[in-house]
Specification:
Blueprint (H helix, E strand, L loop, with lengths): L4 H12 L3 E3 L10 H11 L3 H19 L5 E2 L4 H4 L2 H17 L3 E8 L3 H11 L3 E3 L2 E3 L6 E4 L5 H14 L2 E7 L6 H4 L2 E2 L2 E2 H13 L10 E5 L4 H10 L5 E3 L23 E5 L1 H4 L15 H20 L3
Helix pairs in contact: 2-3, 3-5, 3-12, 6-7
C-alpha cells in the first residue's frame, strides 16, 4: 500500500525540521502589480486574468519556500471567488505543490450527509469513474471537514481516506473570535469542542498509522489552554493550528499542541507569509522580491516556533 498521508507529513516534518504550513490563500490585493499587469495583458481584466495572476503568484512563493516547509494549505474559497478560472488555478497549485514533494491540505471545510459527503470526499481525496476510466479530480492529501452534521458527514470521508491513503482535519476549536458561540457551549458538563475532540479520537482509532492517525483536528493557536486539553483528549491526532501571526498566535502559545516527541501538530500561517512583502519588516525586498520576503517570513516563523519547542 502507498504511504499514508500522515506518514508523508511526518516524513516531511522530520526532513525540514519544522512544522510550518504555508496557507496559499491569495487575494488579488496580495499579488504584486507586475504579476497582475502581465496576466491582464495576456487575458484581460477578466476572471481568467485573475486566475492566471494568483497562479503565478503562488508559483513564486512555492518555488521560494518548498525546501523549508513540509506542507501547504490552499483555502479553496480564495480560488472559488474567481469562478472556474480560479478553480483551475487551485488545481494547478495542488499539482505543482505535490510535484515539489509537499503535502497538500485542501482547506475545503466540507461536511454534508450521505451521497453528498461521499461526492465531496471522492472529488477531493478519492477518485470518480467516467465510463471505463478513473480520475482523481483534485487529489489533495488531506481535506478539512466540518463535523456539524455528525458522523453522517464524516464517515464518507473516512471511507475514502481508508481506500486511498488520505487524511482529514476535523474542525474542533476554530481560531475566530465568535467560535465560542457554539463550540464553547456546555452540554452534559463539558464544552462542545471537547465532545467533538472525543469523536475525532474515536474516528482516528480506525485510521491509525505507526503512531499517529490520519484523522486530525483543527484547533486555533488563539486558544492555547483549550489546545492543552484537546491534546490530552486526542493523543494520536495531528492538530492543524491556524491563527499564528496575523491572527495573534505566537510560538510560545503552541507548546501544548505538540507531543513530547516534537510531533503531533502543524502550524499554519497564510497572509503573514504570502503577503510578507507588504510588511515593513520585509519592505526591503520590494514587490519584485515578494517570494524572497515569503522565504524570510518562513525562516523567522521557524526560528520562533523552534525556540518555543526547545523545552519539550
Amino acid at each position: 500500500m502507498n504511504t499514508s498521508a500522515v506518514e508523508k507529513l511526518i516524513r516531511n516534518i522530520k526532513k525540514t525540521g519544522t512544522p510550518i504550513v504555508v496557507g496559499l490563500d491569495p487575494m488579488l490585493s496580495y499579488v504584486p502589480a507586475f504579476i497582475q499587469k502581465k496576466a491582464f495583458e495576456e487575458f484581460g481584466e477578466t476572471l481568467e486574468g485573475a486566475g492566471e495572476a494568483i497562479w503565478e503568484f503562488n508559483k513564486g512563493i512555492i518555488d521560494s519556500t518548498a525546501d523549508l516547509i513540509p506542507a501547504v494549505k490552499p483555502q479553496i474559497a480564495m480560488y472559488e471567488q474567481f469562478g472556474l478560472p480560479g478553480l483551475a488555478a487551485y488545481k494547478k497549485t495542488v499539482d505543482y505543490c505535490k510535484s515539489k514533494g509537499l503535502v497538500v491540505i485542501g482547506d475545503i471545510k466540507r461536511g454534508d450527509i450521505g451521497s453528498t459527503s461521499a461526492a465531496y470526499a471522492a472529488g477531493h481525496l478519492g477518485t470518480v469513474q467516467v465510463g471505463t476510466h478513473m480520475f482523481a479530480p483534485f487529489d489533495e492529501d488531506f481535506a478539512t471537514v466540518n463535523p456539524y452534521l455528525g458522523s453522517d458527514g464524516v464517515v464518507p470521508f473516512l471511507d475514502v481516506c481508508r481506500e486511498h491513503g488520505k487524511g482529514i482535519f476535523v474542525l474542533v476549536k476554530t481560531s475566530n473570535p465568535s467560535s465560542g458561540e457554539f463550540q464553547d457551549r456546555v452540554t452534559d458538563g463539558r464544552p462542545v469542542y471537547e465532545w467533538v475532540g472525543e469523536k475525532v479520537a474515536e474516528w482516528g482509532s480506525t485510521l491509525m498509522g505507526d503512531s499517529y492517525s490520519s484523522v486530525g483536528a483543527v484547533v486555533g493557536a488563539t486558544y492555547p489552554e483549550m489546545g492543552k486539553i484537546l491534546r490530552d483528549i486526542m493523543p494520536n491526532a495531528f492538530i492543524l493550528v491556524p491563527g499564528y501571526g496575523a491572527q495573534g498566535g505566537k510560538g510560545k502559545d503552541l507548546v501544548h499542541f505538540f507531543n513530547k516527541d516534537g510531533l503531533g501538530a502543524v502550524v499554519n500561517s497564510s497572509r503573514g507569509i504570502i503577503a510578507a512583502w507588504k510588511q515593513e519588516k520585509y519592505g526591503a525586498c520590494g514587490e519584485t522580491g515578494y517570494a524572497e520576503a515569503s522565504r524570510l517570513a518562513v525562516q523567522d516563523m521557524a526560528a520562533d516556533i523552534g525556540e518555543a519547542l526547545g523545552n519539550l
